[in-house]
Amino acid sequence: MLLRRALKEKGKKKKVGKDRLGLAVYKWKAEPAVAVLVSAAAVVSAKQAWLPVIETSGLWSAYDSTLSKAKYIDLTHTIRPDMPIWRGFGNVTFSPAINKDTGQAFAYATDGFVANAYKLTTDQMGTQLDAPAHFNAHYAATDEMPPTFALRKLCVIDVSAQAKKNSSYALTVDDVLGWEAENGRVPRGSVVFVRSDWSRTWPRVDTDVFPQVSLDAVQFLHLQRGILFHGHEPLDTDMTPNFDAEAWILGHGYAQAEGVTNLHLLPPKGCLLSTGFPKFKGGAGNYVRYVAVCPENWPHGVSPGQVPEAPMQHFEEALVWNAQKGYRSRS
Asked: What are the residues whose beta carbons fall under 8 Å from the beta carbon of 178, sequence distance 6 or more?
């Protein structure tokens, strides 16, 4: 910053082209007397030297003009010990974290803080992102998935009407083509979520009979449309004996989302999807926070500043351990 400021004051700017990202590259011609700080250890005197400066990409401006006014919608189930889980996995339990020196639970009164301990019997529960390693040891585990999953275009294909008539309805290629007839081609590199409304009765859901995504549909989306990944509301992709669609997706190195919710609050196109997940070493799946970022005129969701953020909301009722529920709650 000191370098750029000094050259602006004493020099002249010249555009010399663009970098490989398409950003404008400038050089500043400094006057002989200009001396600027270029590091913590060196000061250089520029004598008719051309010094490169790369212009910023405008991401902060994009945030101010668009994302700061957008509507944010949570598409994630809260993880709790009584949530639905695939029948092959054991029960999940929460408990207060124990001080190993005293054998007592950490408490506000004695320690100034509290902490929880979680017995998670699987990384395949709730709202999740399956890594390919879930089915194929030669593809990425959760800690090996790229950070470029963080933000993508989101398409929502609605088959809730079909699922209402047939609880095991499976998304078809025709459903995808029908969506495209109204909304345009599915963008390459986007995320496609399949709305079935299965999650609207959560946690009272049927994990054995549920709306599916057909093998033909996922192959079409990946091979013909080049999507990043697809997602669905149930905890599995399909009900076939060998998990045909899921096995093909993960076995070929693709990821998939499961257990998403609130898709009925989204438009079919126009939103972005924010994906955040931890990096469990060698993980086969991940607990995920999916958030849809929708246009500011969309009637659902909240915008930055509309809810307490810093500081966050203060509650009259304290958060206490509820032994009957098996987790901390305010009632």
From this structure: none
Task: State how far the Cα of 238 lies from the Cα of 171, in Å rounded to an integer.
Answer: 10
Nearest Cα to 243, choosing from 214, 221, 220?
214
The Cα–Cα gap between 265 and 199 comes to 12
* pLDDT tens sequence across 273-327: 999 999 999 999 999 999 999 999 999 999 999 999 999 999 999 999 999 999 9
Asked if 141 contacts 122 with a C-beta cutoff of 8 angstroms, the reply is no
* pLDDT band at 331; cut points 50, 70, 90: confident
- C-alpha Rg value of the chain to the nearest Å: 26
Q: How many CB atoms lie within 10 A of CB 108?
A: 11
Task: Write out the two tokens for 23.
Answer: 């950003």
Say which range, 34-43, 105-114, 121-130, 210-219, has the weakest mean pLDDT. Answer: 34-43
- In terms of phi and psi (left: phi > 0; alpha: psi -120 to 50; beta: otherwise), the region of 301 is left
Handedness of CA 164, 165, 170, 174 (dihedral sign): negative
Q: Tokens at residue 299, please?
A: 């009637």
Q: Which amino acid appears at position 52 of this protein?
A: P
Question: What's the one-letter identity of residue 224?
Answer: Q
